[in-house]
Target: D-alanine--D-alanine ligase family protein
Amino acid sequence: MSNIESPQNNDSIDVAFPILHGPMGEDGTVQGFLKLANIPFVGSSVLGSAVGMDKDVMKRLLRDSGIPIGKFLTFTDETEPLGFSKVVNLLGVPFFVKPANMGSSVGVGKVYDETTYQAAIELAFKFDLKIIIEEFIDGREIECSILGNRNPIASVIGEIKPRHDFYSYEAKYIDENGAELEIPARIPDVVADKAREIAIRTFKVLSAEGLGRVDMFLRQNGEVVVNEINTIPGFTKISMYPKLWEATGITYAELIDRLIQLALERFGREKKLRTSYL
Model:
């Protein structure tokens, strides 16, 4: 990277590439630190990272922008969650209980009855002071990788076929046979185009930059429903994000290079802004 001009006071660092998941890494905290340190970095800035991490705020923004999402409820440690029967009346059964700010399916519980409901509530509150309760969506799990800043592009669509009850932490990271990835997904072209369009809209609405993976559900009637965005998706050579781009025609090495260039492009634009009046 010697041909790239280093930022002031950080001659030894050209670009930072955050590969941290969850709180204190994906939620805007590290991104804010890098901004204060005057270091260009890959991925969403403070706002996009924070919004993408908070499932409650994320879903409200998507809903208000007319992007299809599932029904959900939000509770904090200061508000008593609704009783099981009332949740069932609103969302049906089964349903999911999740920490609002967590990733990799940590703290997520799938609820079938009163007993699993109470256990899921207790588990979720161990990881966050705010939890969400989501309806179960009976559909195929599809994903789309996004690349870009102001004019993002979308990859082909991939499908995850979990072999567990749902795509849990164990299925993602412990059981090597926890899920099957199908790239590209076997869906009609018109549905794939709709999913890509929705993924790009989601990326823009949530102020994401650089990279993101939008996770969606495909109902049997062809409706695409957004589940969430991951602003720092898995990035190993066997992870869904780079594999989707490889299937689209962008190699792993080229993908890294593009992300670095996007980080430098944003850094250059922001350096032209004034941060004080005097």
About this structure: Strands lie at 72-76, 95-99, 109-111, 130-135, 139-148, 153-162, 179-182, 210-219, 224-230. The domain at 72-135 is CATH 3.30.1490.20 (Dna Ligase; domain 1).
